[in-house]
């Protein structure tokens, strides 16, 4: 494993029998409360990852508190990034979770540097910061506090309802800095959800999260993603989803079709072959040339969705974003650079937060570039 990139010191005390003893790894643990998961606790050299200047992402920095994700979405296109740690992109991605135990301490140091430009920092761009491990390690309260106290705008994208725990901290942070919150959900059928997102809270629980954020006065943009061709793109399903999202009080919504990047494609197609063999030829055609659906499908989906957005009062912005939006929504969603962010998911809201790309270069000095495989994948 390429643990050297994580090391701060030379502690080596892998406590799990059979686990390799690796420099930089503090210990590997399995605990009864989290059956099937192994946590590899590391001390990280840095917290802030710099987004490459040529990226379409509208934020210049990211933080990943974990690598690997127990939410275990079959279609997750962060899977491939686990191979940088010499784990596999399947079961290991779901169950071998790297935890940056010192991330808050390192972040506070980085934010205190005089050169820190207080630019938008995004969480949830590679793996989910509110996956199950967060219940044990409680890293996010410290991250939120450090960002807010330093005057740094930030955004969080998640499928994890554990975010509810931190609503009071987020309300407090919102008094100090611009922030954006995003929740992704798309699969409403229980059986499909269990098969494709086995570790993710149910869509209903995520709707409750959106509602709780709205009631707390916080913004929340919903990514209706991934829409699965032939499985969840029928009018009735989209209508029900958009109606529920609107009723929950989302500040915006963006509809995004499935992408199949290498690393996710193999796992998803294996599932499709066994669960829906009749759809295999269609998917092979749709994703024959690239990870994204062809323009024709994208256009077809946009046309189908447009009247539904209008019906539910979510059509005040072009491109599928949303009521309450007050300025241009940046494009460059991780994994799909062609679509925009739903209103509420970026720290804008009429306040500073998303900086024009051409101004980034001068402001990207303080943090080190991301380690290979660290970022820019998720939805
Ligand atoms: S899609 Fe998001 S929530 Fe699902 S496994 Fe990947 S990182 Fe985790």
From TrEMBL:
Keywords linked to the UniProt accession: Iron, Iron-sulfur, Lyase, Metal-binding
Region named Disordered: 316-379
Domain of life: Bacteria
GO MF: iron-sulfur cluster binding; lyase activity; metal ion binding
Species per Swiss-Prot/TrEMBL record: Blastococcus aggregatus
Composition-biased stretches (Low complexity): 363-372
Domain Radical SAM core: start-end pairs: 55-303
Protein name: DNA repair photolyase
Record-linked SMART domains: Elp3
Pfam families on file: Radical_SAM
